[in-house]
């Protein structure tokens, strides 16, 4: 699965090659993503699963299989 994200006119293709742990995938980022989802009207859980959201973000952003070949 691949996707494109647009920000300030820049087109970025995902997934990216995996280069190792990424400190940017933090609780702060997952909280921000959860807030955006709620802002778009998606339901909010009382106790969000931070680890699951961080893993989902990593799976979308990085192609882990590339690093194993």
In short:
The chain is of the alpha+beta class and 69 residues long. Helices cover 42% and strands 20% of the residues.
Describe this entry's structure for a reader:
42% of the residues lie in helices and 20% in strands. The chain contains three helices and four strands, in the order E-E-E-H-H-E-H. It has helices at 27-39, 50-61, 64-67, and strands at 3-7, 10-14, 16-17, 62-63. Strands 1-2 form a two-stranded antiparallel ribbon. Strand 1 and strand 2 (10-14) form a beta hairpin. The model has no long low-confidence stretch (mean pLDDT 77).
Any descriptors?
alpha+beta, 69 residues, globular, two-stranded parallel sheet, 42% helix, 20% strand, 3 helices
How far is it from the N-terminal to the C-terminal residue, by CA? 18 Å
Low-confidence stretches: none
The percent range for strand residues is 15-25%
* Main beta sheet strand tally, sense and closure: 2 strands, antiparallel
Radius of gyration: 14 Å
Shape: globular
List the strand order in the largest sheet: 1-2
What is the number of strand segments? 4
Structural class: alpha+beta
Elements, N to C (H/E)? EEEHHEH
Give the helix proportion (percent range).
40-55%
- Averaged pLDDT: 77
Q: Helical stretch count?
A: 3
Furnish the topology, listing elements before pairings:
Elements (H helix, E strand, L loop, with lengths): L2 E5 L2 E5 L1 E2 L9 H13 L10 H12 E2 H4 L2
């Amino acid at each position: 699965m691949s996707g494109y994200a647009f920000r300030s006119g820049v087109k970025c293709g995902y997934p990216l090659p995996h280069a190792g742990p990424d400190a940017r995938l933090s609780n702060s980022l997952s909280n921000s993503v959860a807030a955006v989802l709620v802002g778009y009207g998606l339901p909010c859980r009382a106790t969000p699963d931070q680890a699951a959201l961080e893993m989902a973000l990593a799976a979308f952003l990085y192609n882990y299989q590339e690093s194993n070949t």
